Amino acid sequence: MKKRPVLPLLLIGIGTVLFLSAIYISTNLRTVSQAPQPLTSEEETFPEIPRVTLKDAFTAFQDGSAVFIDVRDADSYTNSHIPGAQSFPLAQLQEQLKKLGTETWIITYCT
Questions:
Q1: 73: number of Cβ within 10 Å
Q2: Which pick of 11, 92, 99, 103 has the fewest CB atoms within 10 Å?
Q3: List of residues 6+ apart from 71 with CB closer than 8 A
Q4: Of the candidates 78, 55, 58, which has an alpha carbon nearest to the alpha carbon of residue 68?
Q5: pLDDT digits 0-9 by tens, 39-90
Q6: How far is CA 74 from each of CA 33, 40, 41, 85, rounded to the nearest angstrom?
Q7: pTM (2 decimals)?
Q8: Which alpha helices (DSSP H) does 41-90 contain, by range?
Q9: Hey, CA dihedral for 101, 103, 104, 107, is it positive or negative?
Q10: Is residue 13 within 8 Å of 21, Cβ to Cβ?
C-alpha cells in the first residue's frame, strides 16, 4: 500500500473551509448592509448643542437679536438664504466664529 502525503489533503481541507467561510460571511454582510438603520435625531447625535425652536428663531429674526449663520457651501448660499444671514461654510466655521462677539446669539442653519 502506497502512503499518501497528508500535507496536500490538509491544505485542500483548509482551503475548502476558508472558501465556504468567505461565502457565508459575504452573504451575511449583504443582508446586514441592506437592512435599514434607525434614524437618530440631532438631539441624540449632538446633545451638547442647544436647539432653537422655529418660533424662537423667527422672533430673533424679527427683532434682530441673533446672527444667522448659513453653514452650507457658497453655491447653496447664493441660490437661497435667510435675508441678512452670513455665509460661513462648515469647513471655515471655527475660524469665522472668532470674528463674532462671545455675547452674540448665533443661530446656525443648513438644508
A1: 13
A2: 103
A3: 88, 89, 90, 93, 108, 109, 110
A4: 58
A5: 566 556 667 778 888 899 999 989 989 989 999 998 999 999 999 999 988 8
A6: 34, 28, 26, 12
A7: 0.56
A8: 42-45, 54-63, 74-79
A9: positive
A10: no
| Cell reading at 70 | 448659513
- Encoded amino acid at 58, one letter: F
Residue 92 burial by CB count (10 A; 0-12/13-18/19+): exposed, middle or buried?
exposed
Q: What tens digit of pLDDT does each residue of 14-25 get?
A: 888 888 888 877
Residue reference for cell 428663531: 57
Q: Is 46 helix (H, G, I), strand (E, B) or coil?
A: coil
67: Cβ contacts below 8 Å, ≥ 6 apart: 86, 100, 104, 105, 106, 107
Locus of grid cell 447664493? 78
